[in-house]
Specification:
Chain lengths: 237, 83, 206, 250, 237, 206
């Protein structure tokens, strides 16, 4: 028998510390690569540029399809930036360590998603009105466009993170991710684009926005658990 | 002179917001680039001077070797004489 | 309080081949247990099962006498696992990497501790370089600094000596022995020969 | 020729010679831009159709010219760097990119503002406008790519390759968007040299264009010198220069 | 002095063997992950279904915008699959070995691009008419749609491979890749979508297709060298 | 014909720090040259420069007396480089991986050769398993099989012993000595102690 025995720790909390550190870490990583933070925005702008070129420069036609185009392009921009959400952590082994931390994985995953939204969804929403001008979006719908995108992209980040967690262990997960996630995005897309169209028609937008809010609330409650479970599965592979 | 008064000049025949915002943004960007270039140059020179002072202090103090000294040490077992 | 990790009738099959079968293990405080075996004999797989990352196995695991599934939180709070990949973010400096790991275990710690840990693994002067610009061995050393920084009783180390130079290997070996002597426990795989010690126990696979 | 290239290879030589050239271009830029501004804003006659909104031309056109020329200069610098390994060329390319992006932005912004009184809209999908927008993206791409590498050598070479690929594509893009849809004003400065507008409007524009080019050269010289300090800070001659020690005699 | 000296090889060709083996290797790898080969196709189909949902289900409106939408969606699908063109080779070290092979790198790179086109561009072109039906694309333009896509995606693969080679060493290269490559795609898009629109109008399409062919010829001549140079840079980094 | 790789006044700077400066090297047939040095001293960097992957250095390289840039093709035709990453595609079987490497060097080879090479590294029975399902050491062994399969005079090996078990290390050491004795040349970094041999020469960095 040895004299000194190492004391065993009880799991003693510190959840807030861990969550805050994870938020800070991801923010630092994203902001440090200055250029890359802008990438989803640039992608958004580029895709919006492609449509008039490919379809027609006619402002009247563009005005009709603008809400849909803007929403689809923002959705794709958010989707594409998702792939890297967990991948670099997986590749360098820190995802393994995240899973072995004595903290609820759902909370840590949520912190990562929050950073993702803050640095992609929110800027996309803020930038959309500018691109709206270029697509000749009728006046009066700009605020609704930004608001619906801000609400909607939060749900998109949450739902998309489930897909990202499921595919993180797979090579070429990128396109598979789209396949898994896009069908789930459709409700958000319908009510998001619907809100902007309603604003253009002059109809009330509160119903649409309320549904977007409800979708967000639901994803906030369910997605973290799904993300945690999916990460466990991916590490197991 | 295309304008008869200063007020008219400012009004730009009703096109003031357009003309002045276009000129304003241009002027702002040009001045900002010049300002940035000057600040950049000054900071770099100051940084280099500070470093030179530090190196100087270190070399006269003689305590540590400078960080960028040659580190390669030896090639051992050179048996042949390559002429 | 002494720790004890037990496995009963552990078995794992990969591609219709049994890597191990009917494996009984008792790992206790004060031991260094080295899992041995040629390449492909299942050492990594065993470590992943024991640290709860792999669930595709048969048999039972117990932590201090309690079935693992019931005491996972407590087990994790006392486990430090270092796998083949070092888990170091290349965009963050060594200091920032360590800060995150400390926070993950629920402590905010302080910078002096982290600086000291980095110095102890020979990275003084590299604290603020992005880790991606360190050499292979230096990156692993950042990960090894966690051994000093976050005190955990059970260390599970998969090939910790990879890419570490001679002096580093000797220092790490001393650290393992010291940990076991202090009542901790080390589970390690390596192809390096470890210096014989009364604390060292071997488990051979394959 | 080779002697000149070998001289260019030495940042030290460039640092010395640019110190002499720099003031000249700064003075030229300040004088020309000031003269052009006063003439263009106050003395040039108003356009018979567009009225005074036409005065935007004096920033719009120089910026648009510069935006395109800078990209070409950047590609040429990239080529020089790749072929002859002249580091100064790459340093110049590095500092040109942000200015080029800024000028592209100025052209876009002033054009968009000008569009409201003349075309009744901020933006339309016209060939020249679209090509300019794409040029902005090309600039952003070069800047982002350079920033994404940790190794300076790789960053330089990658940015050079992209600038060269981009510059091959600029005429193709221009040609294809022209084919696609065009509405913008035709060229003011034609090869035959005959101006499409009255002399009193055209001369200040020419002065402004020359002023912008001088500004571009002056700023590039100045910032290339900074870039030399940044990259060669450990070199002996820079340290001597900074501490003001006399150069070693040989 | 030692008795036996190992003979030194001269570089003795075998380029065809190396190119053929690289083609086979990439084909095998892609086909083995059966699911993933389908991903660009599924992405294409999903994006095309998003538009009617987000814009309007009105067939007349859809018919007008169909050529543009189809081309943009195909372009995005091809773009997204590019990211993995060199990345997995980079990650596992075989790109290093490709560069150290005593063979012209441009030829080996071209072989990889050819496989990429064969398994994404070509299937996209073949599938597009089917989606055209869903978007109420007017009859008579289906063959031109497929042909223009087949020609165009080849250029897209070549140009995109330059971007993929430049960004392969970078974390989160994905979105940066889009930024680099999309501006260069615009000529192809204009003439590709233009060809389909001309076919709908009943105008001659041969001018458009000829230009697409010329673009392809130009990229075939220049891109391989740019790809090789870019790969060398990335390995250096 | 004897081979000779020379470096003159080689210097490499990383982050304002000189990894090495004024390095003169002469590497000839019949030698095993081991680059030594602690972690981060620049061994990997040196190997990458010598094998022509890194161009960010000062100084000159010569291959058989000719400046490297003029004889790159010939140099590459005689070089076998194995880096930190094994270069094995996880989706392909060991056999398919080797076939590609053989073709890259311009030979089509035959299956019997490849099977024999795999057997020599102890992978008999694993020829058709996807390489991704092999253990860390087994994957490296697939890469090492190339040493036998494609005969090249100059071997440049960065930590070839990583993840290899004891018997494997001994066998590989014998192989290196045999290669040098046959008139080849080996340039190697490793933190393992190599058995002393009259062919072995050391270069210390850092
Ligand atoms: C966002 C909107 C606009 C953009 C991006 C834009 C872009 C350009 C570019 C790139 C040039 C230089 C062409 C060359 O190199 O030859 C140019 C020249 C010019 N622009 Fe604009 N423009 C815009 C709006 C306008 C508007 C609204 C007007 C006036 C109605 C205008 C009038 C001119 C004139 C008169 C020139 C000189 C023509 C020449 O010398 O080539 N532009 N613009
Ligand atoms: N991509 C890079 N950018 C900048 N610096 C780097 C980069 N890679 C390595 N370095 C620096 O170069 C030095 C030498 O690295 P290198 O990988 O050559 O070391 P090494 O001798 O192989 O070490 P090890 O034994 O750990 O493998 C390191 O200290 C590191 O800081
Ligand atoms: N993802 C996987 N899928 C299927 N089989 C696998 C997988 N990973 C490993 N194996 C198989 O399990 C066996 C044991 O692998 P493991 O990684 O545990 O070996 P190891 O003892 O750690 O070897 P090494 O000394 O090389 O690290 C291997 O033979 C391999 O074929
Ligand atoms: Mg293992
Ligand atoms: Mg190394």
């Amino acid at each position: 028998m040895r004299a000194s025995l190492m004391p065993l720790h009880d799991h003693k909390g510190g959840l807030m510390i861990a969550v805050k550190a994870t938020l800070m870490r991801d923010l630092t990583l994203m902001l440090r690569r200055r250029g890359e933070m802008l990438n989803p925005l640039v992608f958004f702008a580029l895709v919006i540029t492609l449509f008039p070129i490919a379809i027609s420069p006619d402002p009247e036609l563009l005005a009709v399809i603008a809400p849909g185009l803007l929403w689809v392009a923002a959705l794709l921009a958010a989707l594409l930036s998702l792939d890297s959400l967990f991948r670099s952590d997986y590749d360098d082994g820190s995802l393994e360590q995240l899973l072995l931390a004595p903290q609820p994985l759902a909370a840590l995953g949520l912190a990562k998603v929050a950073v993702h939204w803050l640095l992609t969804g929110l800027p996309l929403a803020l930038m959309a009105p500018l691109l709206g001008i270029m697509l000749a979006l009728p006046a009066g719908s700009y605020a609704v466009l930004a608001l619906s995108l801000a609400l909607g992209t939060a749900s998109l980040s949450l739902i998309g993170a489930i897909g990202a967690a499921l595919t993180v262990g797979l090579a070429r997960g990128g396109v598979l991710l789209s396949l898994l996630v896009l069908p789930l995005y459709i409700p958000v897309l319908i009510f998001g684009a619907g809100a902007v169209q309603a604003a253009i028609m002059g109809d009330g937008v509160s119903a649409h926005l309320a549904i977007l809010g409800a979708l967000l609330a639901a994803s906030l409650m369910l997605a973290p658990w799904a993300i945690a479970a999916s990460l466990r599965i991916s590490i197991n592979g | 002179m295309a304008f008869s008064s200063f007020a008219e000049f400012l009004a730009m025949g009703g096109h003031a917001p357009y003309v002045w915002s276009a000129w304003g943004v241009t002027a702002l960007l040009i001045l900002a680039t010049v300002w940035h270039a000057r600040v950049e140059q000054r900071q770099l020179l100051n940084g280099l001077k500070r470093r030179a002072r530090r190196e100087h202090a270190r070399s006269t103090g003689g305590a540590q070797a400078p960080l960028n000294a040659a580190r390669f040490t030896s090639v051992e077992g050179e048996t042949r004489n390559d002429a | 309080m002494s720790l004890c990790l037990q496995a009963r009738q552990l078995a794992c099959e990969r591609d219709d081949r049994w890597l191990f079968e009917g494996l009984d293990l008792d790992i206790r405080s004060g031991e260094i247990v080295r899992i041995e075996g040629p390449n492909g004999s299942g050492k990594t797989t065993l470590l992943k099962i024991l640290s709860g990352q792999h669930s595709d196995y048969q048999g039972e695991l117990f932590w201090n006498g309690v079935a693992m599934s019931d005491t996972r939180e407590h087990f994790l709070a006392n486990l430090l696992y270092l796998g083949h990949a070092p888990g170091i973010k290349s965009g963050l400096s060594p200091l920032e990497n360590l800060a995150w790991y400390q926070a993950l275990s629920g402590e905010s710690g302080n910078e002096a501790q982290r600086l000291e840990a980095l110095e102890s693994v020979g990275l003084a002067g590299f604290e603020d370089v992005p880790s991606g610009q360190l050499s292979a061995g230096q990156q692993r050393r950042v990960a090894l600094a966690r051994l000093r920084l976050t005190p955990r009783a059970l260390w599970v180390l998969d090939e910790p000596f990879t890419a570490i130079d001679r002096d580093g290997v000797a220092a790490l070996e001393r650290q393992l022995v010291a940990h076991a002597q202090a009542g901790g426990c080390v589970l390690v795989t390596t192809h390096h020969e470890l210096t014989a010690s009364s604390l060292l126990r071997r488990i051979a696979l394959g | 020729m080779w002697a000149f290239i070998n001289k260019l290879r030495s940042p030290k030589w460039f640092y010395a010679i640019s110190a002499k050239l720099q003031p000249f271009f700064w003075v030229a830029a300040a004088a020309l831009i000031l003269a052009g501004t006063v003439w263009g804003l106050a003395f040039a006659p108003a356009d018979y159709q567009q009225g005074n909104s036409f005065r935007i031309i004096y920033v719009h056109v120089p910026a648009a010219f510069l935006a395109q020329s800078i990209f070409v200069s950047m590609a040429i610098s990239g080529l020089v760097y790749m072929v002859w390994k002249i580091k100064v060329a790459d340093m110049a390319a590095t500092v040109m990119a942000p200015l080029g992006a800024a000028m592209t932005f100025v052209a876009l912004f002033s054009g968009a503002v000008w569009g409201v009184p003349t075309w009744g809209t901020w933006w339309m999908w016209d060939a020249r406008l679209t090509a300019m927008l794409i040029l902005l993206f090309l600039y952003l791409g070069v800047i982002a790519l350079r920033g994404a590498f940790t190794s300076r050598d790789s960053a330089s070479r990658a940015a050079s390759v992209l600038a060269m690929v981009g510059v091959i594509n600029i005429p193709i893009i221009k040609y294809s968007v022209d084919w696609w849809y065009t509405l913008h004003q035709p060229a003011t400065f034609t090869v035959t040299g005959r101006a499409a507008m009255p002399m009193e409007m055209w001369v200040p524009l020419l002065i402004m264009v020359l002023g912008f080019y001088s500004f571009f050269i002056a700023l590039t010289l100045m910032r290339t010198r900074s870039e030399i300090l940044r990259r060669e800070g450990t070199k002996r001659w820079v340290q001597d220069l900074v501490t003001g020690q006399p150069e070693e005699k040989r």
